[in-house]
From TrEMBL:
Biological process (GO), any one: monoatomic ion transport
GO cellular component, one term: plasma membrane
Organism of origin: Thermoleptolyngbya oregonensis NK1-22
Domain called ABC transporter: residue spans: 5-239
Cytoplasm among keywords: no
Keyword field contains Signal: no
Topology versus the membrane: Peripheral membrane protein
Taxonomic classification: Bacteria, Bacillati, Cyanobacteriota, Cyanophyceae, Oculatellales
Protein name from the UniProt record: ABC transporter substrate-binding protein
SMART domains to which the protein is assigned, alphabetical: AAA
GO molecular function terms noted in the UniProt entry: ATP binding; ATP hydrolysis activity; nitrate transmembrane transporter activity
């Protein structure tokens, strides 16, 4: 398909009555190919209709340019026909006359008889032969919209523009019209751009879905390619493997925009107090047992004790929400998977390096590999057993869940699989799923297992949906689990606040590690605003051996380490191991300047200051070399040689990663 419509750096500014200005759209770049169906989706006020009107020529951009087949769009024209939600039919004309008015006005160069034939053809196309002589007042809403579509198509436009064309229709009429529109567009190779609020409509009709961020200054937040083959049928498209992932992607985006809007409204200027640069903080977390230090610091008053009077804990459903909040500047700090600071710093998010500082390891351990119950019944108790089952299986490729590419869950799961001779990208399929969704997907059979933090492994065993085939203690005893992460520019701007935050969380970690406090911590975590689950699923300590107990029913607890020798101090060696593993699987290039990156990510000075001011001087920090369950010892002196020694891996690249400290500006 050739380039048909180009929207190049378009900006739209409206003048306000009081003399100010409102920036509706900013920096919009979009290319549409001939024959393509593109949907624009976003919340009300994001500029969808404004963008559509500029493509139509009904409005002009303040800056930038819109072109159709290389020609600048500067006014409306018959080569671009708009179908509005309110039909826009002349009430004194019949169906036939409404369509004829457009045809006779535009197609003056073709014979009258041919024009009549064209009018009848399009009346038939939308199934309105029986109502051709009726005025709009005698038509239903769906019939009126069919007249508007027929009128638009009858003048043979190069581009069909639809502004929520089915928004006012009942579900049955809307569904029928959607199928008719798809058929018409496919048979006539119509290029179309549609504004919609309907997620399912966008997935059903589109080749691509353009998602717009909230206004003011809306921009394109993402573009989804819809890989569902055509022709599509409304009742069948839901069975395509991509349908629900596309739908979930759009819903996530819309929900995130809604949350960002709330955070924007709530956001106030930094309040400096007690010698701290800022005491009003938004801290992100994901509902897992490992969020305990943040919950305890909030509920037991450790934040307030260290001068952080106004701390809000922002509950995100997935690690992607944490990434978006930190990258957008809506979160001051966050609980992060241990590998996320390095992943963000070297450009794992949108190929753009975002320097992140980690000054505290809040938890170690706490993860496990869970498989569906059926595998236990097939005698799968180890990675080697799983490999045998894969070789013998006649089923389609098996799918395993993990929570984020940078998470220890992903890295440990991949390491465990590879150690058993299983290529995690070729022999199985790994899918990113929010932690709380894991059990539902396991029960539904859409995944065969997962690696996740507690309480979701224990819960799967207790509900007899799955079993823990390997604890993380068996893979790497004492691995970092969750860390405190802040943007480097935030850390540089708020040095005293950063130390206060580390002190409060370090005290909370010590509180969580005291067995006497376990009932209190479990009770706090179970609350609706935190994990929101039955307290029986939440455990902190280690009542079992390190090795997974496969007896049924299994009761394998979390093994979290919150505090103690070598637990909380950030380790450059550990971050380097995670860096090598992400490069091993192609998540990032291995940075040639890895020593510089480790120096910037691991803010040991903040931890040391926090520990000293708390009087925690008797903890030993050296943890020794990293040795995993397969006996391989990580050589931190030569990470490239270590990478080359791994048998199963992707072709990794080595590249210099250019990092700058950008100012913190919320998008």
């Amino acid at each position: 398909m050739s380039l048909f419509v180009a929207v190049d750096q378009v900006e739209k500014v409206f003048s306000l009555s009081g003399g100010g200005q409102y920036v509706a759209l900013k920096g919009i770049d979009l290319e549409i190919k001939k024959g393509e169906f593109v949907s624009l989706i976003g919340h009300s006020g994001c500029g969808k209709s404004t963008l559509l009107n500029m493509i139509a020529g009904l409005d002009l951009p303040t800056d930038g340019v819109v072109t159709l087949e290389g020609q600048k769009v500067s006014r409306p024209g018959p080569d671009r026909m708009v179908v509005f939600q309110n039909y826009s039919l002349l009430p004194w004309l019949t169906v036939r006359e409404n369509i004829a008015l457009a045809v006779d006005e535009v197609l003056t160069d073709i014979p009258k008889a041919e024009r009549r034939s064209l009018i009848e053809q399009h009346i038939n196309l939308v199934g309105l032969q029986h109502a051709a002589d009726k005025p709009p007042a005698q038509l239903s809403g769906g019939m009126k919209q069919r007249v508007a579509i027929a009128r638009a198509l009858a003048i043979r436009p190069k581009l069909l523009l639809l502004d929520e064309p089915f928004g006012a229709l009942d579900a049955l009429t809307r569904g029928n019209l959607q199928e008719q529109l798809m058929k018409i567009c496919e048979e006539n190779q119509v290029t179309a751009v549609m504004v919609t609020h309907d997620v399912d409509e966008a997935v059903l009709l589109s080749d691509r879905i353009v998602m717009l961020t909230n206004g003011p200054a809306s921009k394109i937040g993402g573009i989804l390619e819809v890989d569902i083959p055509r022709p599509r049928r409304r009742m069948e498209v839901v069975n395509h493997p991509s349908y629900y992932s596309l739908r979930s992607e759009i819903i996530y985006f819309l929900n995130q925009q809604k949350r960002i809007k709330k955070l924007r409204a709530k956001k106030t200027t930094a309040i400096a107090r007690h010698g701290l640069e800022k005491v009003n903080l938004e801290l992100g977390f994901v509902p897992l047992t490992a969020c305990a230090p943040l919950v305890v610091a909030k509920e037991k008053g450790f934040f307030a004790k260290h001068g952080l009077d106004e701390v809000s804990l922002v509950r995100e459903s997935s690690w992607r929400g944490i990434v978006d909040g930190i990258a957008g500047g809506y979160l001051d700090a966050a609980q992060m998977p241990a590998g996320m600071p390095v992943w963000l710093t070297v450009g794992g998010h949108q190929d753009t390096p975002l320097p992140i500082v980690s000054s505290l390891t809040m938890t170690r351990n706490g993860n496990a590999v869970t498989l569906a119950k059926k595998f236990y019944e097939q005698g799968v108790y180890t990675a080697t057993d799983f490999k045998r089952m894969l070789l013998e299986s006649t089923e389609q490729q098996h799918t395993l869940g993990m929570v984020h590419p940078s998470s220890m869950h992903n890295l440990l799961l991949r390491y465990w699989l590879a150690s058993g001779g299983i290529d995690p990208d070729r022999d199985v399929s790994l899918k990113t799923i929010p932690p709380a969704q894991m059990i539902a997907d396991l029960k539904a059979g859409t995944i065969d297992g997962y690696c996740v933090g507690e309480p979701w492994n224990l819960r799967a065993a207790m509900e007899d949906a799955g079993f823990t085939v390997a604890t993380d203690l068996e893979i790497w005893q004492g691995h970092p689990g969750k860390v405190l992460g802040v943007r480097e520019d935030w850390a540089n701007t708020h040095p005293n606040t950063h130390i206060a935050l580390a002190k409060a969380l370090l005290e909370a970690c010590r509180y969580c590690a005291d067995p006497e406090n376990e009932p209190d911590v479990r009770s706090l975590l179970a609350r609706r605003e935190y994990i929101s689950t039955n307290i029986d699923y939440i455990h902190l300590g280690n009542p079992n051996t390190f090795v997974c107990n496969l007896d049924r029913p299994m009761r394998e607890y979390a093994h979290h380490l919150f505090f103690g020798d070598g637990v909380n101090r950030p380790s450059r060696t550990e971050h380097l191991w995670m860096m090598t593993q992400m490069a091993r699987w192609g998540e990032i290039p291995f940075p040639r300047n890895w020593m510089e990156i480790l120096e910037r990510v691991c803010r040991v000075s903040v931890f040391s200051t926090a520990a000293r001011e708390l009087g925690i001087l008797d903890i030993k920090y050296h943890r020794g070399p990293i040795t995993l369950f397969d006996g391989a010892t990580f050589d931190a002196e030569d990470p490239i040689a270590y990478l080359n020694s791994l048998e199963i891996k992707r072709d990794f690249s080595v590249a210099e990663v250019a990092i700058d400290s950008r100012p913190l500006v919320a998008a």
